[in-house]
UniProtKB/TrEMBL annotation:
<dbReference type="GO" id="GO:0005737">
    <property type="term" value="C:cytoplasm"/>
</dbReference>
<dbReference type="Pfam" id="PF12804">
    <property type="entry name" value="NTP_transf_3"/>
</dbReference>
<keyword id="KW-0547">Nucleotide-binding</keyword>
<dbReference type="InterPro" id="IPR029044">
    <property type="entry name" value="Nucleotide-diphossugar_trans"/>
</dbReference>
<feature type="binding site">
    <location>
        <begin position="19"/>
        <end position="21"/>
    </location>
    <ligand>
        <name>GTP</name>
    </ligand>
</feature>
<feature type="binding site">
    <location>
        <position position="109"/>
    </location>
    <ligand>
        <name>GTP</name>
    </ligand>
</feature>
<keyword id="KW-0963">Cytoplasm</keyword>
<comment type="similarity">
    <text>Belongs to the MobA family.</text>
</comment>
<comment type="function">
    <text>Transfers a GMP moiety from GTP to Mo-molybdopterin (Mo-MPT) cofactor (Moco or molybdenum cofactor) to form Mo-molybdopterin guanine dinucleotide (Mo-MGD) cofactor.</text>
</comment>
<keyword id="KW-0479">Metal-binding</keyword>
<dbReference type="GO" id="GO:0061603">
    <property type="term" value="F:molybdenum cofactor guanylyltransferase activity"/>
</dbReference>
<keyword id="KW-0342">GTP-binding</keyword>
<feature type="domain" description="MobA-like NTP transferase">
    <location>
        <begin position="16"/>
        <end position="170"/>
    </location>
</feature>
<dbReference type="InterPro" id="IPR013482">
    <property type="entry name" value="Molybde_CF_guanTrfase"/>
</dbReference>
<feature type="binding site">
    <location>
        <position position="80"/>
    </location>
    <ligand>
        <name>GTP</name>
    </ligand>
</feature>
<protein>
    <recommendedName>
        <fullName>Probable molybdenum cofactor guanylyltransferase</fullName>
        <ecNumber>2.7.7.77</ecNumber>
    </recommendedName>
</protein>
<keyword id="KW-0501">Molybdenum cofactor biosynthesis</keyword>
Length: 213
């Protein structure tokens, strides 16, 4: 599917990359398979992003391919090259599998993705290698849009033993999406609510209950 960007009149291709390879150490179990209502967190992400772009890629740890995605035949599951190296390697694996110039990258533990905010971010990508929200002075590199060509920069960093996302961003052109812009689409900043601890999971379940009541 091709996204028509209303803000600049451009037509851009997009793929969606979901990172699901984390160990969930703070939660104490694999967060990708935790359920809210009847869907796991990774299934929530896939369901929300279905139809947004040309393809959906789920990046997981080596050998961790049983993600309950059999009912989503359009999803391509790819494995990291190595474990314990952090999200930069996951982003690299996803970009390497992508066939699109632009790529949305999200962590699988963000159950409140906002499609209008995502479309706005994509519309701001012209002339930039990455489009990243900034909330409370903190950046959100795992809710961002990346050009596929930054995988070459990532490869160079990792070849030198560097796995920091900040090091990557220091080497590419970044458009930061500020809170005033985010607030037009997601005034509560729920897009960036992620699951780290059991209490986060319970809060997310309660928010879903409130939305459905």
């Amino acid at each position: 599917m091709i996204l028509h960007c209303l803000f600049r009149g451009a037509t851009l291709s997009l793929s969606c990359i979901i990172l699901a390879g984390g160990k969930g150490l703070r939660l104490g179990r694999d967060k990708a398979l935790e359920k809210i209502n009847s869907l796991t967190l990774v299934q929530h992400s896939v369901t929300t992003l279905r139809g947004l772009g040309e393809q959906i890629i789920v990046v997981t740890a080596p050998g961790k391919t049983d993600l309950g995605l059999e009912d989503f035949p359009e999803v391509r599951v790819v494995e990291d090259r190595d474990t314990g190296k952090g999200p930069l390697m996951g982003i690299y694996a996803g970009l390497s599998a992508s066939k699109s110039e632009l790529n949305l990258v999200v962590a699988c533990d963000m159950p409140f993705l906002n499609l209008e905010l995502i479309r706005f971010m994509v519309s701001q990508s012209e002339g930039w290698d990455a489009v990243i929200p900034r909330v409370g002075g903190l950046i959100e590199p795992l809710h961002a849009v990346y050009r596929r060509n930054i995988k070459e920069v990532a490869a160079e960093l990792m070849a030198g033993g560097a796995y920091s996302l900040r090091q990557l961003l220091n080497k590419v052109r970044v458009r930061f999406i500020e809170e005033t812009e985010i607030g037009l689409y997601d005034p509560q900043n729920l897009s960036f609510f992620n699951i780290n601890f059991p209490e986060d999971l319970e809060k997310a379940r309660e928010l879903f209950r409130q939305r459905s009541s």
